[in-house]
Amino acid sequence: MAIKADYETRPISDEVWGRMKALRREHWSHTFTAQAEGGICATGLAWQFQPMLAAFGKFGNPSIGTNFARAAREGTGPNGLRKYIDIATAKGLTPMCGAIGAHVGQVYEGVSFVGPKGEKITPDFVFQPMGCHAIYKGAQICSSILGLPMLMIDIPGICSDSARDYILNQLLDAIEWIEKKTKKKFDDERFAEAVRNTSRARVLWSKTASLMKNIPSPITTRQAMSLNQPLIAYPYSKGTVEYSEALYAEVKDRVEKGIAGTPFERKRLMSVGIHPLYRPDVLRWPEQYGAVFMAGGPAYGAWIRTEDSHTIPGKTVEERGLALKTREEALRAMIFLNLPPENPRETTRDSLVVINQVHDWKVDAVMLHMARRCPAGQGTFGIFDLKADLLAAGIPAGTYEASEADPNEFDEVRIREEFERFLESLGLTKIAMETESATDDYA
Amino acid sequence: MDVLNEFHRIVSSPHQFARNWKANTGGKVLGYLCTNLPEELLYAAGVLPVRILGTNEPESVTGPYIWANTFCPFSRDCFAQALQGKYDYVDGISYGFCCLHARHVFESWKRHIPVQYSYELCVPYLQSPHSKTFLTREMEDYKNTLEKWTGNSISVDALDQAIDVYNKNRRLMSKIYDLMKADNPPLTEAEVAEIALSGMLIDKKEHNKLLEKALKEIPRRRSNSKHGPRIMLLGSVNNNIELIKFIDSLGAQVVIDDYCTGNRYYQTEVVPDENRLAALAARETNRPPCPIKDIPERRRPVRYAKLIDDYRVQGAIYTIQKMCDAHGLDYPFIESALKAKNVPLLKLELDLNIPTEQYRTRIEAFLEMLETSRMA
Questions:
Q1: Which of A191, A203, A219, B219 is deepest in the core (most CB within 10 A)?
Q2: Distance between CA atoms of residues A374 and A382, nearest Å
Q3: How many CB pairs under 8 A join A and B?
Q4: Alpha carbon distance B88, B113 (integer Å)
Q5: Taking the model in full, what pTM does it have?
């Protein structure tokens, strides 16, 4: 028997949703127009420091900013991903994580650099700020395949003055390197503006994601994954700042009016580890049980980790009182977004951070995705300790095993069973909804 | 030969020296993961550094801590030894940042096997002047924590002495490896591996004494060479001496390796510098890299080309630990670099259970192919 919704839901407004899509399209179009219009084009994986590249003029990025977004959107669905991962494997690249396989396979096939009208582009260079070792080795492979020069920025795994100075010196060299390679001039004013925009947009996103602490959560994790698209690839544009302001205002309004992302919030769930990007519907499976993923996807914001391991929105350039009069000042401001001075030196693998997020976002239970062949993942590295710590803190925690980008690892029957077993262990049963759940266009 | 027996004895009882040293000196023992650590700093602080190694035997104790579907068997094996109490004499642990597999062991160790001291040295990925400056600063922090832990001040004199001991060790090991360049080398690769591994388990001064003795005795030794194809071993960390013996037993003449548990560990001396920490940092950033640190330019193919020429290598075996993505992502590029030198490559995936008969077939076929092309 159908039951009445606990909360009113409403789609994200056409204005905000439309802006998100427009920004996505705008950024994508730069990939094929930037070079012709005096800018630069660079490829790479899982980026940071985009404002620096945007200071050279219009900036094209055929990798859409992250290999993960690429795996989700460009791989032509699970079958496409399988194809590209198989191509990379056949080249002898094994073992490797699914995201790198999907990306490298597309580069081997030459499908990455072809525009909507069949036009081919050749990026100026490969740009790779360090992520995990698979990401930068993947970028190195792309550099070899494409015969492109490579620019790497080493990002130490600590948050300290020495680390910030190290990054700063590399970025100063990088600007000269790009000028030399591309014969394009770095514009300091444009750079300062891009840094200001990025800091505003990312801090606004953090504030928006923090609104999900409210009951009911105004948006779901699945919605957030779509809504943060401009933050991933295009945070430096004025349009993204305006979009972020509009989005924040709208989500805040939803909080004030009690509008929820889903009609039921019988259990609020956090997703840990990048979910299978080719199956985003996984994030909606709990809705059949009246539960919702509403935490765990606040990536691409600017966050600060407090001394007592809480996660709070970071500070904009203005809030920090930074002048950005010189190139070095602007670079430091950009670095602060990723390595804020407030953060402790060691910023990784602290179960207390997740536990505090659970409490702060009023989460009832956590689902951890164990992504095979991803040693860096939050759902893999130290997974058993994290799960044990969650359980010890009285937080129910479940796991499922797949891959963030390799559909060959996705055993739907088994994973559905794991979800159902976990949700039932929380005392939930499937519900028949009277109302439709959120009807956002998740494309 | 007595001295070779001594190396064998050390490797066969890998914990004995450290236990005795600790009992006799009252000093502290520090276990380390990966080789990106300036051992000279530890040595100068009066600490005995010991490389954490597995036993290459199946284990069933790490399952609750490290996920086997993603982390390499070597790292799990190392942690298994610790969980089983084999490293109960270790007072502290350190890790010079490299791969995430080893880092997981470090993190799990800190949490589940409490030690007095633990420190992760943030070693940069890139090798550049900026990374040297950064690492020098990080080493200052490392030095300070070591001094606090041991209560010993690390003086310039002590550091100089430690650098001398370690540089001498590298020079002596270089002479051992030079012996393998001969047409009929006086040692097998398994013996070389034992000489190399023993140096990671004992005081380097003691190792130097043994090496000096060995270098007097070994040249007088009659070669047992089988005159099979001259093979280079490369790939992931590998301390499986039985596997090396097995490869030799099938008719190969293994002459050189590029393991971080072997030849690569002993490369690159510390060049004197007024700032001793900068000298140590320079060594770390200049030494031959593993795949993790081999960026953005690939320097490993250049090194392999030289090893191939120096040791007249005819074939290579790439042993890769299961789930070792760093070496996996380099494989096609190493294969093609070796192909350019007309050196065929056989890839073998390592786990704690070695499929001996399958390997026998593959290695024999590979050696036969090399023999055939040698005769053609």
A1: A219
A2: 12
A3: 121
A4: 9
A5: 0.94
